[in-house]
Predict the 3D structure of the following.
Amino acid sequence: MTVPPPDLELVITGLGLVLPCGDGVKIARASLASGLPCFTDLPESLGHGHGGVCTSFNPTGIIPPMQLRRLDRPSRFAWVAVHQAFQDAALDPKPIGERVAVAVGTMTGGSEASEAFMRPYLSRGPEGASPLMFPNSVANAASGHLALAFGLKGPSATFVDRENATFTALDQAVHWLLAGLVEVALVIGTDGLFPLLFDICRGAGMLARHGDPEVGSGRGFLPGEGAQAFLLESRVHAEARGARPRALLRALACRSTPDNTREGRHRALSGAIVDLGGAPLDRRIGGGNGLSRLDTLESLLARSHPDWPAAVHPKGLWGEFGGSGGQLFAAALLEPAERVLVTAPASSGAQYAALLEEVSLDPR
Amino acid sequence: MNRPLNRIVVTGLGIVSSLALDREGTWSAMLEGKDGLGPLTRLSLPLEPAQIAGQVAMNPARHQTLCERTALRALDEALDGFQPDGLPDRIGIFQGAGTSGLPVAEAFLEERLAGRRGRATESAYQSPSTVTDALARRLGASGPRGTVMNACSSSLLALGQAWERIAAGELDLAVAGGAESLCRTTYAGFSCLKAMDPQKCRPFSRDRAGLNLGEGAVQIVLEPLDRAKTRGAAIYAEVLGYGATMDAHHPTAPHPEGDGAARALAMALRAGHLEASEVDLVSAHGTATPANDGAECLAIRRALGKAAASVSVTSTKSQFGHTLGAAGAFGTAAAILALRDQVVSPTLRLEDPDPACDLDCTPLEAKARRVRAALVNAFAFGGNNVSLLLRRWEGS
């Protein structure tokens, strides 16, 4: 577990959001408050079916048109979210570029470009392959584009740990900050939809087939896309530059299970929560998505903790993948609260829990 | 950087390579000047001009990718029968991934393009973290996990991550490394970027013309020094720290003056509180692409200053090809064994050095010499640079 010491309390001073409900914090807040799912018919380019598509995504005035053409969806979303986060934090990163870290979590990064690269290659051989597509086929393409766009020259890592990749990224960013390697860390969750993703999820029987996913139903999820950007720095650093925090990251805990059974995952997630400590909560954000593998863990938690407030499950509104856990962390920042618990179950690997305090909506 | 709480040592090393399926077989072949490059047989890509690759003598199994198989084999060798006791949640697994489950996804896409359903079981998607999970299962580990996908610097960053967690006192043991298998996406991708040499690659050579791709796995066991001593573990080397930077220069090309790479090297030295004059070896990224090798040598000169003149440089790409996500772990393995045996493995086919690579790049033959400390480099698409610093273990 990572608990920043009192003299190194870490705060979130910048937030940027690109979600199926639209771009920006206000729209996201309204979407979460409404409880209305944001799934739509897929555009033709993504195949058929439903998903959490960022239909109103608008990079105009943020991403230069020449650059836009070279970016895959996760990079586009991340660019706009990061732009928002730096604006929100009132921070120009370029003068301190070498002291800014970038940690990205993604489930789908690189996959859209891989598919776009391989479809013509498999059909027509080498003459069908586009050298413009291939560079985006790596999961860390987004971090490279962000480095160029914002002059970021510090350490960078991209993680692909299933539903919780962005929590792994957050964990890494916290370590870099606590080690004194950087002044500021940018944590980003980003995902983009692509046709093969729907094919695979449908074939594996994981998709909600009739209407929107219903958390707790076990009938399946719907994929979503989007990006969330969080700017982290020490409270001391934030205060020194006159920035007011959106929230304090009190603690982050992760446990895993070697056997990957339901019981093992439940034990790991419960253990992570115990690690955080047991003070009363105002709000709880959960990682239920409509698929029993995650929903069961959330319902077991709710049963074990009847005193907890009912969980809000953002994946039921915005979809699975869309930020690889970043959407949960973002949701925790969208209502004022003294203490918010985020539980992030995963289908395998590390189970995460995070505790946020002093959540403020309008820090300035 | 703050001083680490613990000293961290390497107590296990497993290698599955195109030279041999074990550590000592691989190392002795490297020192004998053998390479693991040969005609491409893993993939059938007759229209590709380059038909050379470094392939391991193993195949994927049903429901198990080649990456997973080689990674598990390397882990078994690294553990050498040791089954960690103590708290399983203080054991972490950190892996660098590259192609990972891509061959499975390619096969599925091919089926779909042919109008067939394909076998779209959930495992068909083969998330890169599948390998990380498999290693955790084998080890009974329930601590933190991380699957880094920083392209070609993935596994070196994973090693840095493992070091960081043990140094902070959070873990008693970590396994870090990487596994890679050939697949059509990367093969075709590097080919269409004109980055592949149709002949065997020639790092640091004047006529270098690109890389060959390779596959394999390296797994490394890291522990705090006091725990390793208590259990009487064999200690290969000490890990002193790492550096990581971004170029912010170009999506695929390195900074021509090695700016970001030099900063990563300097950051690793700072993390390890070591002087440049104490470094005797750089296990280089050394891809043999025209853009990389000169910029990397410049970066080494910038970071080490006068000490660069007496350092040995070597590239494992000349033996194994570019193992992408596992490349940093392969470079680390070569550095660890050089520190152990006080001999530097050669850069093969370096007959006509590029004047831009004016360092001692260990041409053609292994070189016995004092190796006190070693830096390992791995650079990646996106201008991502990582350097790891290791020191010889002398039993004190």
